[in-house]
Structure formats: C-alpha cells, structure tokens
C-alpha cells in the first residue's frame, strides 16, 4: 500500500476520533470567545477535523507528484471525504450549530454526484471534479472548522463567520451540482 492510500486510511480512522472529541463532553472546561464559551473538546474536534481535511490535499498532492495514483485511491479518497463531511455535518446538527436543511442539501448533492460517478465508471467513463466542486469543498471544510470554533476569531466582533461561510458552501453546493449535471448530461443520459 502506497503513502497516499495510507494517508487516506488515516483520514477515515480520524473520523471516530473527531466525533468522540466533539460529542463527548470531556471535563476540559471552556474558553471565552466573544459573547460565548468555546468548549475545549470542540476545539480539539476542530483541530482533528482540520488535520483530516488537510490530509485530503496532501494525499492527492503526493499521488500526483510521484505518480502513485491507484484505483483503490480513486475509490477510497472521495469516499473518505464524503464520510468526513457527513460526520461533521451530523455532529454540527447534534450540537445545534447547523440547520438540518443545510446538511440535507449538501449530502443530497454529494450522494447524487457519487452515484452518477459510479454509474459512469461502470460504463468506462471517468468524471473529474470541477473547479466549482473544489471551491465548494473548501468552503464546506472551512465553514465546519469555524462553526466548531464557535465563529472564532470573528466571535469577538459578534460576526457569525461560520454561518456566513456555510451559506456560501450551500450556495456553491447547489451551483456546482447544477453545473456538474449540466456538463455531464451526455454521460448521464447514456447510462439511463
């Protein structure tokens, strides 16, 4: 097993650590952040999530740079991303930091795109991620971290940065989903 695939597997293994860090109310106390208190375990969860999200960029960079792209990696990498984002969105709903409808939009797009990619792959067609899709992912990841940090450092000014970033992520999710289906309509119609 090559290094990028090991990094991807490590990302999957970080997911339960992230969930435990955020949802188990460890008695670590809180830090004042603006008008609220940031539970230390939420901070730990944000760090774990940020490392896991960053590992997505790292494994892809290493795989491309050293020509270590494998079929296993092509399958596992996007799956790991979907599992990480799904876990984070569900955790944010559980701690009342995210509206469930936002998660439904994001997850519906992810499952629909993944399903179409799998069908297209079965037909021998590879559908690559678009620039819009990469921006969508970036905003999702950053929004999740800022929400876990209770809008820090913007919380001192009373600015709900995490909410604004998540709105942008949802809008980009919708736009990139429409763009994805439009650009790949021929492939989609061929598989029907």
UniProtKB/TrEMBL annotation:
Gene3D superfamilies to which the protein is assigned, alphabetical: 1.20.120.1760
GO molecular function, one term: CDP-diacylglycerol-glycerol-3-phosphate 3-phosphatidyltransferase activity
Location relative to the cell: Cell membrane
Reaction catalysis annotation: a CDP-1,2-diacyl-sn-glycerol + sn-glycerol 3-phosphate = a 1,2-diacyl-sn-glycero-3-phospho-(1'-sn-glycero-3'-phosphate) + CMP + H(+)
UniProt xrefs under Pfam families: CDP-OH_P_transf (PF01066)
EC number: 2.7.8.5
Enzyme class, spelled out: transferase
Membrane topology note: Multi-pass membrane protein
Pathway the protein takes part in: Phospholipid metabolism; phosphatidylglycerol biosynthesis; phosphatidylglycerol from CDP-diacylglycerol: step 1/2; Lipid metabolism
GO cellular component: plasma membrane
Family: Belongs to the CDP-alcohol phosphatidyltransferase class-I family.
Role, per record: This protein catalyzes the committed step to the synthesis of the acidic phospholipids.
PANTHER family: CDP-DIACYLGLYCEROL--GLYCEROL-3-PHOSPHATE 3-PHOSPHATIDYLTRANSFERASE 1, CHLOROPLASTIC, CDP-DIACYLGLYCEROL--GLYCEROL-3-PHOSPHATE 3-PHOSPHATIDYLTRANSFERASE-RELATED
Protein name (record): CDP-diacylglycerol--glycerol-3-phosphate 3-phosphatidyltransferase
Organism, as annotated: Marinococcus luteus
